[in-house]
Design goal:
Helix content is 41%, strand content 26%. The protein is an alpha+beta fold. The mean pLDDT is 91.
Length: 170
């Protein structure tokens, strides 16, 4: 994994974690030394990420990344296209959620930010390990998408609209 991709993955892991993540854990997850992790954290801090070190590990306080929620609809066969479109334009699919009439909001973290992650997710669905959350609401679902800028999010939204995935506001 290249340094840029590893740093993006570190940010996604820290943003999705509910507790501090140790340098040792990050080192283990990414297969690099703790010294490399320390260097990555230093670079990320220099890029505007508010990451603090505690005796339990790293916590991200604030991210310069932008987020937007998209309400979408598509078939199971179109899932790979939807996810690939988002990550191909520079977005991270943070999660998927649905509004169930009985259970309320049901959320599943995804943190899909690369073609490899898309492939792994699709493989998991196709092999029957799991089914997509959208299936309980007839294909309607929401994604929280994170990106470097509002412009990237605008491009993602426009592309999703062009493919007919965005659910129009009523």
């Amino acid at each position: 994994m290249k340094a840029h991709d590893r740093r993006k993955a570190i940010v996604n892991l820290l943003l999705s974690s509910t507790e501090a993540v140790s340098g040792g854990k990050l080192s283990e997850v990414f297969g690099v030394s703790r010294q490399i992790i320390v260097q990555d954290i230093t670079v990320l801090k220099g890029s505007g990420y508010d990451i603090i070190s505690t005796h339990y590990g790293y916590i991200i306080q604030k991210s310069p990344l932008k987020e937007r929620v998209f309400k979408v609809y598509h078939t199971t066969e179109q899932t790979e296209d939807e996810l690939s479109l988002i990550v191909g334009l520079g977005g991270t699919v943070v999660d998927v959620f649905v509004w169930h009439k009985v259970y309320g909001k049901m959320v599943a973290p995804l943190n899909i930010f690369s073609a490899l992650h898309v492939k792994q997710f699709i493989e998991g669905v196709r092999t029957g390990k799991s089914t997509e959350l959208m299936n309980i609401t007839g294909g309607y679902h929401y994604h929280t998408v994170r990106a470097d800028s509002e412009d990237v999010l605008d491009d993602i939204e426009k592309s999703l609209e062009q493919r007919g995935y965005i659910v129009p506001e009523i």
